[in-house]
Amino acid sequence: MSRPRLPALTVLTLAGLMPACVARTRVNALPSGMADEGRSVAELKIDGRVVPVAGCRSGDHAHFLGADLMGASNEPVLRVVIDPLEGPRLRLLGTRGGAVLGPEQCPELRASVRHTGWWVNDVRDVAGEVQAQCTMEDGGRVEARVAFDHCH
Questions:
Q1: C-alpha span between 29 and 52 (Å, rounded)
Q2: What average pLDDT does the segment 33-37 reach?
């Protein structure tokens, strides 16, 4: 008794669809109008210094709803956390190590993070955005306008 074989055309069609199933991380500036559409660089400033955001990592790695925004050398720069009771919070990582920013420090703080439905190596893939203008206790400033997609 022989097993039925898939026709070669079916196998080639399935093989051709495989690259379309790969999730790619994207980090973009939030559009503030029609002129900004299509920009691919996130806007993040810490103490007036522009910090390039090159990628993101799902908060699922550390068991929180949110994402770590990664700098050019793949180090975490800003953590976006969605607290289920108190809303969004930001945590500076790296040189400013550990400063937590909430509504008290940020007159403008809007953030959202949602699961995309994708799982990559047992990690939930997330997408979202953050828009914030904050002043730290020492007078330092943080400004963020970042959208992220497929963080895992």
A1: 11
A2: 34
SS3 108: strand
Cβ partners under 8 Å of residue 102, min gap 6: 86, 87, 88, 89, 90, 109
Determine the 3-state secondary structure of 40 from DSSP.
Answer: coil
Strands (E), the chain: 26-29, 43-46, 49-50, 53-58, 66-71, 76-83, 87-92, 100-101, 108-120, 123-135, 141-151
**Residue 134: beta bridge partners?**
142
pTM above threshold 0.85: no
Beta-carbon contacts of residue 105 (< 8 Å; ≥ 6 apart): 134, 135, 136, 137
Give dist(CA 139, CA 142) in Å, integer. 10
Q: 70: closest CA among 59, 82, 86?
A: 59
Where are the domains positioned within the chain?
A: 24-151
Q: For residue 58, which amino acid is it?
A: S
Whether the per-residue pLDDT at 122 is higher than 80: the answer is yes
19: amino acid identity, one letter: P
